Amino acid sequence: MAKTQKIIITAAVTGATHTPSLSPYFPATPDQIIADAVTAHAAGAAVVHVHARNPEDSKPTPDIGIMTDIVSSIKRQCDAVVCITTGGSLMMSKEQRLAPVVQLKPELASCNAGSVNFVFADLATKLKNPKFDWEVSYLQGTYDLIFSNTFAGMEYYIDTMNQYDIRPEFEVYDVGMINNIAYFINKGLVKKPVYLQFVMGILGGIPATVENLAYMVKTAREQIGDFVWSCAAAGKSQFPMVTAALTMGGNARVGLEDNVYLRPGVLAKSSGEQVTQIREIAERLGLEIATPDEAREILSLKGNDKVNF
User: Fold this and answer.
1) What letters, b where the CB count within 10 A reaches 16 and e where it falls short, cover 61-85?
2) pTM recorded for the entire structure
3) Which of 84-93, 117-126, 220-229 has the lowest mean pLDDT?
4) Does 107 fall in a domain?
5) Is residue 3 part of a domain?
6) Domain presence at residue 2
7) Which residues is 205 bridged to in the sheet?
8) What is the domain-level CATH number for residue 127?
9) Which residues form the domain of 193?
10) 11-28 per-residue burial string, b: 16 or more CB within 10 A, e: under 16
């Protein structure tokens, strides 16, 4: 295995893809998101990746007040690094997506590395008795949607994060996005260490195969040089791909944002269950798990005392 550095486990707890009716355990309200994040941290996650949901109907929301309540409560209850999304929802404007980062100034924030068809319309077929009337149309609407991240938008995000000493976590959905990041590095906008999250298995992005992951890592080494990386994968690909990443020197992202199952046919009762499973896999591979402070050192983060929540 390529790496002796401790492994950062990230728990992505809710996201903007799944809807509440896909699992009774899905964290679909602010209180449930908070509880899931704290549980994931207790299980071994050094980082929790956070989206906001409306408490009334569980729909993804750009409401800064709701996001503030979520991340503030997580911070009060545990020492996890809080990574705030700039993905928000595919339907939000770039200003809405970035607003929580500007207001809250986290240590770490997602930064999507290019535009992509981001389709999860087929999940609608799994909803037999949806709890909310928006769920089916929301899922089906992604069949005719581009998740837009133009070069102007990416530069806007990177410049803003630099202004507030926020480390971008670059979400890489396909191999061409590595070139996009290299462009901004060569332009002098991206500060080291560069942190990449390879997100695999999204319909519209790169398929989740070990060969593709190896090619992504190889391409990033050629284009970027030194970097820190992690792997996330959608649905049933989650644990096979994240385990493969661990054997290749990468870090691990799991959580109910990416996959509502623990194993085939068995729903995960929390993101913490998934964290426990990948932690045990990592430990059986002889790898050590990073604490939040060790993750801060690996990623050169500014520290929990310098956020605005």
Assistant:
1) bbbeebbbbbbbbbeeebebbbbbb
2) 0.96
3) 84-93
4) yes
5) no
6) no
7) 203
8) 3.20.20.70
9) 9-306
10) bbbbbbbbbbbbbebbbb
